[in-house]
Amino acid sequence: MDTLARRKTIVIIGASGHGGMILDCIQTENKFSVLGFLDSYKTKGSMFNGYEILGNEQELPNLMKEHNLDGAIIAIGNNWTRGAMVDKLKVVAPQLNFVSIIHPSSIISKSAQIGKGTIIMPGTIINSNANIGDFCILNTNSSLGHDGKMRDFSSISSGVCTGGNLLLGKFSAISLGSNIIENITIGEHSLIGAGSLVIKNVLDKSIVHGSPARFIRYRDVEDPYLKGDVTVQKLNGAMTRNRYEQ
User: Fold this and answer.
1) 77 appears as a binding residue in the annotation
2) What is the CATH number of domain 3-92?
3) Which of the four CATH numbers 3.40.50.1970, 3.90.580.10, 3.40.50.2300, 2.160.10.10 does domain 101-218 have?
4) What is the pTM of this model?
5) DSSP letters of 62-104?
6) Cα–Cα–Cα angle for 157, 147, 150, nearest 5°?
7) Closest CA to 81 of 244, 238, 207, 234
């Protein structure tokens, strides 16, 4: 049996710039075969980065049956929106397996633990006894210090450097090029602005920015924070967005 036949077949959910980066990681890792992309706001049958848009997430049950699909990876950069998609998929396709993608150029301690659905981009360094939850993102050339903990749906952006014993709360994000000293706790749903130096603990739902980082304001959990984010709309009590986030 050749190498291609042994690869598990997956789909990428979200055809954006982030989805393109994840595709590069998958191709380099050479562990999975990509069937195509799912995206609610792109035309079914159109192409993205050389792969077909197979429809939206409602297509998953048929794809799992027709193509013996082994799993999926969610390519949505916004932590809150990614969490909402996971909740939706658990209803649409409860048997769906979520895979993790790890670029081969990353350096990961043997004692580190990595949850399902997590994405580790090129050049990432994960140090000893780190614990990364489910559906997290560690972007290009970021580092997580020893004994660091990232709770589910949290993310660190490109060039972020964290000292030992970080605790990053659920849905929280550390933006481009920020530095976090040792023994810092960042609460849930918080945002660290780009280029910040964090030397104090950060409360839940806080935006902090600067060097040293200072409290700017509190935020709502669904507030956009990535370039290209769009306004969250509340329809019949459900959180929706008009397109996938970059």
Assistant:
1) yes
2) 3.40.50.20
3) 2.160.10.10
4) 0.89
5) HHHHHS---EEEE---SHHHHHHHHHHHHHH-TTPPBP-EE-T
6) 40
7) 244
Confidence of residue 229 (pLDDT cuts 50, 70, 90): low
Average pLDDT, whole number, for the chain?
90
103 marked among binding-site residues:
no
Tell me: the pLDDT tens digits for 77-136? Answer: 999 999 999 999 999 999 999 999 999 999 999 999 999 999 999 999 999 999 999 999
> Under DSSP, is residue 192 helix (H, G, I), strand (E, B) or coil?
strand
CB 140 within 8 A of CB 124: yes
Give me the residue spans of the domains in the chain: 3-92, 101-218
Give the pLDDT score at 228. 58
Annotated ligand binding at 17? The verdict is yes
Percent of the chain with pLDDT over 70: 89
CB 190 within 8 A of CB 169: yes
Check whether 233 has a pLDDT greater than 70: no
Two structure tokens written together for 140: 């290009």
Residue among 67, 103, 146, 189 flagged as catalytic = 146
Q: Is 45 annotated as a binding residue?
A: no
Catalytic (active site) residue 146:
yes
Encoded tokens for 126: 């994960």
Q: Which amino acid type is present at position 220?
A: D
pLDDT, mean of residues 221-242: 52
